């Protein structure tokens, strides 16, 4: 019977490594806090020293909607609509901040051992035994 990845590395190491990797990854992601400072008055972009806010990005969106409802085949309306949606999406994404939540050194060490130890077991199970 062949092991993980068609090698003789061992199914036990494969599954143990996989479980440790998933548990460590889950705990790592649970310890990261995500916040955003996005609102329509917040400066999203700076154009020649002028702050372009989220509300200002909605102006071409409104014009694009109006043009599309007047003539659905007008490329200018579609360009205004899609351009403003893309700018809003990127503005929201770039305003996201990630930070570690407060935890003890023991918690961090357990997370790192589970994640990287599991990764090592998982990868080592994919090679032949004794090599």
Could you explain the architecture of this structure?
Helix content is 59%, strand content 15%. It is of the alpha+beta class and 131 residues long. The protein has 2 domains: 8-31 and 101-125; 39-97. The model has no long low-confidence stretch (mean pLDDT 85).
Key terms for this structure?
131 residues, alpha+beta, 2 domains, two-stranded antiparallel ribbon, 4 helices, 59% helix
Helicity range of the residues? Answer: 55-70%
Low-confidence segments, given as residue ranges, are none
- Alpha-beta classification: alpha+beta
Assign an overall shape: elongated
Q: What is the domain tally? A: 2
Taking the alpha carbons of the first and last residues, their distance comes to 18 Å
- Note the main sheet: 2 strands, antiparallel
Q: How many individual helices?
A: 4
Instruction: Report Rg.
Output: 25 Å
In N-to-C order, the SSE pattern is HEEEHHEH
Hey, roughly how much beta strand do the residues contain? Answer: 5-15%
Mean pLDDT: 85
Number of strands: 4
**Looking across the biggest beta sheet, what order are the strands in?**
1-4
In short:
The protein has 131 residues and is an alpha+beta fold. It has helices spanning 11-30, 54-70, 75-94, 105-124, and strands at residues 32-36, 43-47, 50-53, 96-100. It is built from 4 helices and 4 strands.
């Amino acid at each position: 019977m062949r092991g993980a990845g068609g090698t003789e590395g061992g199914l036990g190491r494969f599954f143990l490594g996989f479980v440790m990797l998933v548990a460590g990854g889950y705990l790592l992601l649970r310890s990261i806090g995500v916040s955003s400072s996005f609102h329509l008055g917040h400066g999203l972009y700076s154009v020649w020293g002028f702050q372009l806010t989220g509300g200002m990005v909605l102006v071409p969106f409104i014009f694009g909607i109006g043009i599309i409802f007047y003539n659905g085949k007008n490329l200018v309306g579609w360009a205004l609509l899609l351009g403003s949606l893309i700018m809003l999406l990127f503005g929201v994404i770039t305003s996201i901040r990630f930070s570690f939540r407060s935890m003890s050194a023991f918690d961090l060490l357990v997370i790192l051992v589970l994640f990287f130890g599991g990764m090592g077991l998982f990868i080592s199970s994919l090679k032949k035994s004794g090599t």
